[in-house]
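Lab notebook, bench 4. The sequencing result for the construct came back, and we need a structural model before the next group meeting so we can plan mutations. Quick request posted to the team channel:

Model the 3D structure of this chain.
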Amino acid sequence: MNQPVSPLNHDDLQQAKTLQETFQKIRYQIGKVIVGQDKTVEQLLIAILAGGHCLLEGVPGLAKTLMVRSLAQAMDLKFHRIQFTPDLMPADITGTDIIQQSETGSRHLAFAKGPVFTQILLADEINRTPPKTQAALLEAMQEHSVTVGGKTYKLSEPFFVLATQNPIEQEGTYSLPEAQRDRFLFQTIVDYPTREQEGEIIERTTGSGVGQITPVVTGPELIRFQHIVRLVPLPEHTKQFVLDVVRALRPKESDAPKWVPQLVQWGPGPRACQQIVMASKARALLCGRLHVTTEDVESLAAPVLRHRIVPTFSAQAEGIDADSIITRLLKELPRRKASSTKVAST
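Done. Here's the predicted structure in token form:
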């Protein structure tokens, strides 16, 4: 069994090199404003390269909103922010038809676009609004379009939804339905900074110096980079490893570990396989490789799978969460061996 030879031609290889250099510059620009959070920033960049959406979960004060805004500035993309509240209506997101009067006195319906008509949409505290309003994002996230009054409006490309939610204050909140959570490529956990990083945050934010972000990439360039990501080869042994991981987390699969039905009520669907592969391809390019490895898959398994697993009641009672289940599975799964045939590289 041979690994596939890279389908990238000379121009594509140059684009792949440019992609890596450009995203290093984006990291540098974001670093002018955001201290630490390297893993979170990396997952945001991977999600954008893979054409996916990201759900950021963390306590207040960890600069989630500032991080997303800084990312939009570094990419020179149109940015809108929606503060989700219990009284927010679907039309407040998508827009609505309004009556306008012309100079001649005649009246007609005109569509007033909502904040979803942007390129990077920050859905702040998405779990603070009822399911009906949360669902208003579904079509936009999946189809990159909005239907209002029977008419469909296309969104500008590229388009990304980066949502935040607070994991600790749950009174008066609405958990995202499984169908909507599945639309997010990653659920990224934003953690506290280290002591040294927190000291630097104090220095930056209480002094006179404020970092200025310079755009380093445009929307059309991002679309070309996303095309390059799709061309990255997926070796057969790595594809089989993806299938091993995802299928082993389904409690009714015959080859799932015996402990999985005891801890997992519902496992991930086929979209998990698709998205972990796309994310792994993007990570491979950011790491300077032109093929996906099982290390890419292991590195991204938790953010791709944690919101696609429903632990059983007994697992929750014992304090076993999705991350613990994924970690245990990755330790126990045998690694498939790669072929000796090398993939083309830069």
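The longest strand covers residues 95-101.
Will bring this to the meeting.
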